[in-house]
Amino acid sequence: MGAQEQYSEELLLEEDVANQNEIVLFNDDVNTFDHVINTLIAVCEHTPEQAEQCSLIVHYNGKCTVKTGDYEDLKPRCTRLLQAGLSAEIV
């Protein structure tokens, strides 16, 4: 692969990453760990281990990115998180 091809490929990868949005989940004093974990599994398609790790990060750091992707995919997921009583937003 030539230097120009390598450079073009890197630019395309950077553009793909730059166009991604994130759902950020925020800590609260209301929801239990089990509720947060089960909701992340159902809404964000996390594995149980991934959901548990995210819930701990949220608890100790105050927030955590729980899903990355296109806005059209994230919007209904974020709505479902909010309907479940969690604090989340798309950034």
Describe the structure.
By secondary structure, this protein is α+β, with helices and mostly antiparallel strands. It has a single domain (20-90), classed as Ribosomal protein L7/L12, C-terminal domain/Adaptor protein ClpS (Ribosomal Protein L30, Chain: A), CATH 3.30.1390. It is built from four helices and three strands; from the N terminus they run αβααβαβ. It has a three-stranded antiparallel beta sheet. Helix 2 (33-44) packs antiparallel against helix 4 (71-83). The chain is elongated. 23% of the residues are buried.
Keywords:
elongated, 91 residues, Ribosomal Protein L30, Chain: A, 19% strand, alpha+beta
Largest beta-sheet details: 3 strands, antiparallel
CA-atom Rg in angstroms? 16 Å
CATH superfamily: Ribosomal protein L7/L12, C-terminal domain/Adaptor protein ClpS
Number of helices: 4
Structural domain count? 1
CATH architecture title: 2-Layer Sandwich
| Helix-strand pattern | HEHHEHE
Termini separation comes to: 36 Å
Strand order of the largest sheet: 2-1-3
What fraction strand?
Answer: 15-25%
What is the class in the CATH system? Alpha Beta
Query: Helix amount, in percent?
Result: 55-70%
Mean pLDDT: 90
Structural class from helices and strands? alpha+beta
